[in-house]
Specification:
The complex is a heterodimer of chains A (458) and B (326).
Chain A: H1 2-86, E1 97-109, H2 113-116, E2 123-140, E3 143-153, E4 160-171, E5 178-186, H3 207-212, E6 218-227, E7 234-242, E8 263-275, E9 278-289, E10 295-300, E11 307-324, E12 334-351, E13 362-378, E14 383-394, E15 397-414, E16 417-428, E17 437-449
Antiparallel strand pairs in A: 1-2, 1-17, 2-3, 3-4, 4-5, 5-6, 6-7, 7-8, 8-9, 9-11, 10-11, 11-12, 12-13, 13-14, 14-15, 15-16, 16-17
Chain B: H1 2-8, H2 12-43, E1 46-50, H3 53-63, E2 67-71, H4 88-93, E3 97-100, H5 110-117, E4 129-131, H6 164-181, H7 186-210, E5 218-221, H8 227-232, E6 236-240, H9 251-264, E7 268-271, H10 278-287, E8 290-293, H11 307-324
Parallel strand pairs in B: 1-2, 1-3, 3-4, 5-6, 5-7, 7-8
Helix pairs in contact in B: 3-6, 6-7, 7-11, 9-10
Classes of the chains: A alpha+beta (458), B alpha/beta (326).
């Protein structure tokens, strides 16, 4: 019985324990489920939150994207507008470079031009010598073109007299170091005859160039320049033209011009670096003006009766220029000494009675010499001064000599604005009918627009 | 007599042999000449003209023995005022490449020299015309090219070579031009370029470190050479003694410059040796600033024969002046 009772007690105890375990298990299970569900809810909330964030970010990004797209579109529109603006029709697209030179000479000469031989009046004078339009551009890949149109004041009327000083085409790519120029241009003779007035180192062109060349070496023709293919600089130029010299009369060929009716000219020049700072350039030039008939017409002689008619003329020249150009500060200091010697050989038909067809008319030759020499010293970026000596024998009468002495001082406020004061004393041979005179010049030259530093003006 | 004569006469066969020998010799001579000429052409150096000495130094560094370099400037000239010597013309006539700074730096002498050179290979627009300003973003591009602003550079300030970082662009341009001209030497050019670039980069780092104390300090100079340099080394470029480019100062401008320097406590006046010392010295004295003489290209002052030596000199001169002023 006791044993049975003991078994019953144990069984109850076991059941009770089992129930407790079951309850505990169910409780734990419940707790776990609740915990899991809580975690799931939290996660779901987090996922929802993240989803919201992602959605929000996506919205911002898409907003930004939209803004960026709009800005890109704006930019594209602006670029397109700028690009379109570039497509404007510009009729002046290929216009050449243009520059204008003005040059006024104020002067006082002690004698009238009947006693000086000048084409300007004596006493006080203002001469608008240059209103010079320079234009230049490439013609095509093989040539460039340029023109210099000058409108200077007429000495009689004061009105602008338009003249084409130069208008030429120049090759840029010929083989064998050749360069051909054709049209109206300043032919290469000597050192200063192909320089325009305002670029001269002094106010007036040297007398020898005026009298033997006719001022600037203007010609209508062609010239060929050859840079010799040597390691030393040697340049050879030859050319021909109808007429030579800006103030010289054209050759008069009559009704038919033969080749011998042209002028032929040339120059051979070379250069030496004496030291890094001292340069020497020298050259010889020639001008042949053969068999022209009645060149320039009959020229009345001082006796008022006889006439000379120039039939033929030859000019030979030799030039030398030595320059001290310090490498370091040549904008501030420089010295130039330039000289040119010319020999003119002319054949004249002399008519003592004034009638070239009269039996007493005869031919004679005149050989004349002329020279100039100048020195210019620059001691400041804006200041330079110099002295020009001129000597020339009349090409029609070599015993008629003229001397001139010209100190000058130049003030350049910049490359494009320059004032020059010059005094010139001129001595004429009394037999010429001209008299010694003194002159003071104030030259004001200015440049606007394009202006190249040319090879010839170096 | 006839027999004796016959002994000395050449037989037709002998004559033929002689002719044959003569033609063979002539042929050999022709071939040799041709071969030598061909070899010479192959081995010929690239003939390079540079306008300024910094470009010459770079070209020699890259080109080594394969280039024959001649610089129009010796180093002491004004970059805008190299004399137009006719002795340059034959050299330019035979040049393969003309290397220039560009941006109008050489406008006063190069166009006329180019025309006189009659060398189509190096004319503007041709491959032989090497403009080192390509790839440089120019500073101080004028809003107007009117001459009231002086001898203004219409494309912007051309003195970028005084900034060693921008100068590397020029180095690369020269390298590419040499390769295009002489591709057979590409490996050598590349090796030389890389070696020089390594050296230059190291120097640039060194110069920047040396120039640390200069940061924020201001200076004036005679001509507008230093805008790129000041930008690179963090200095302030306060203006020029020249009134305008190419125009000397007026008394009023000198006075204004002195007053401005005093007010802003500007410690340096730079004088390039191409310009007179009198006015910069006066301004430095009056403003209580240090006067520094600086080269604008290699060779401008003694011991600056290479680009690196020149930059060394410039940085050292500034740093020394700054140390003295403390």
């Amino acid at each position: 019985m006791i044993a049975h009772a003991q078994e019953t007690i144990d069984s109850d105890k076991f059941k009770s324990q089992l129930q407790q375990l079951q309850q505990k298990f169910e409780q734990q299970q419940q707790e776990m489920r609740e915990s899991f569900e809580k975690m799931m809810r939290a996660q779901q909330a987090e996922i929802d939150s993240l989803k919201k964030q992602v959605a929000a970010t996506t919205n911002i990004a898409s907003t930004h994207q939209a803004v960026a797209d709009e800005e890109v579109k704006d930019l594209k529109d602006q670029v397109a507008a700028v690009s379109e603006a570039q497509k404007k029709q510009r009729p002046n697209e290929f216009n050449p470079s243009i520059g204008l030179v003005g040059e006024t000479v104020f002067s006082y000469r002690s004698r009238g031009n009947d006693q000086t031989g000048s084409d300007r009046p004596g006493g006080f004078d203002v001469f608008q010598r240059s209103v010079e339009l320079n234009i230049a551009a490439s013609v095509d890949p093989f040539a460039k073109g340029y023109a210099v149109i000058n409108a200077s004041a007429d000495s009689e009327t004061g009105e602008a007299t338009l003249g084409v000083e130069e208008a030429a085409i120049q090759t840029t790519s010929l083989p064998y170091n050749l360069e051909l120029k054709a049209g109206r241009f300043f032919g290469e003779f000597g050192k200063l005859s192909y320089i325009h007035d305002h670029e001269l180192p002094f106010v007036n062109r040297p007398l020898a160039l005026d009298q033997y060349i006719g001022g600037e070496s203007r010609t209508d023709g062609a010239q060929l320049n050859w840079l010799l293919p040597t390691s030393h600089y040697i340049s050879l130029t030859t050319g021909f033209g109808a007429g030579f010299g800006g103030d010289s009369p054209l050759n008069n060929p009559g009704s038919y011009r033969r080749l011998s009716g042209f002028n032929y000219f040339g120059r051979l020049s070379t250069y030496f670096d004496l030291t890094p700072n001292v340069q020497l350039e020298t050259g010889v030039s020639g001008l042949i003006n053969p068999t022209t008939q009645d060149r320039g017409g009959a020229i009345l002689q001082p006796d008022g009766l006889a006439t000379f008619t120039e039939n033929e003329r030859q000019v030979a020249g030799a030039d030398l220029k030595i320059s001290w150009v310090p490498l370091q500060n040549n904008q501030y200091k420089r010295f130039d000494w330039g000289s040119e010697f010319l020999y003119s050989h002319s054949k004249f038909l002399e008519a003592p009675s004034g009638d070239p067809t009269a039996p007493d008319a005869f031919q004679h030759f005149v050989g004349s010499l002329g020279a100039y020499s100048y020195m210019t010293y620059k001691w400041h970026r804006q200041w330079s001064a110099g002295f020009l000596f001129d000597w020339v024998q009349n090409p029609m009468n070599h015993s008629d000599e003229t001397f001139a002495y010209s100190p000058y001082i130049t003030w350049a406020t910049s490359h494009w604005n320059q004032l020059r004061l010059q005094y010139t004393h001129t001595d004429h041979d009394p037999m010429s009918g001209l008299r010694a005179d003194d002159a003071i010049y104030l030259q004001w030259a200015w440049i606007i627009g394009a202006h190249a530093h040319g090879w010839q003006q170096r | 007599m006839a027999g004796n004569n016959a002994k000395h006469k050449f037989q037709p066969k002998e004559i033929q042999n002689m002719k044959s020998k003569f033609f063979r010799a002539l042929f050999a001579l022709f071939i040799t000449t041709f071969a030598v000429a061909a070899f010479s052409a192959h081995a010929a150096k690239v003939r390079v003209i540079t306008t300024l000495t910094d470009l010459a130094d770079f070209t020699r560094e890259i080109g080594g023995d394969h280039v024959d370099v001649f610089s129009l400037a010796t180093g002491i000239e004004d970059t805008h005022g190299v004399p137009m010597k006719p002795s340059f013309v034959p050299r330019m006539n035979r040049a393969d490449l003309l290397i220039n700074v560009g941006l109008g730096c050489e406008h006063a002498f190069l166009p006329a020299l180019l025309e006189a050179s009659k060398n189509p290979k190096i004319q503007y627009g041709e491959p032989g015309y090497v403009d080192c300003s390509v790839g440089i973003v120019p500073a101080e591009v004028p809003k107007s090219t009117d001459h009231s602003a002086g001898d203004v550079h219409p494309y912007g300030n051309p003195h970028y070579m005084l900034d060693p970082v921008r100068a590397k662009t020029a180095l690369e341009t020269i390298y590419n031009a040499l390769i295009a001209k002489a591709p057979q030497y590409q490996a050598d050019f590349t090796r030389n370029r890389n070696a020089y670039l390594t050296k230059l980069n190291a120097k640039i780092a060194e110069w920047k470190k040396q120039a640390e104390p200069l940061k924020g300090l201001a200076f004036v100079s005679y001509h507008e050479h230093w805008v790129y340099f000041a930008d690179r080394f963090g200095m302030r470029y306060a203006g020029t003694i020249e009134l305008k480019p190419g125009v000397d100062p007026t008394a009023h401008h000198i006075e204004n410059t002195i007053n401005m320097m005093k007010a802003d406590k500007i410690p340096f006046v730079v004088r390039e040796p191409q310009f007179p010392e009198k006015v910069p010295a006066l301004i430095a004295r009056q403003a209580g600033a240090a006067l520094i003489k600086l080269p604008i290209m290699p060779g401008g002052v003694p011991h600056t024969e290479t680009y690196i030596e020149m930059m060394d000199y410039i940085i050292n001169a500034f740093v020394s002046a700054q140390q003295r002023s403390h």
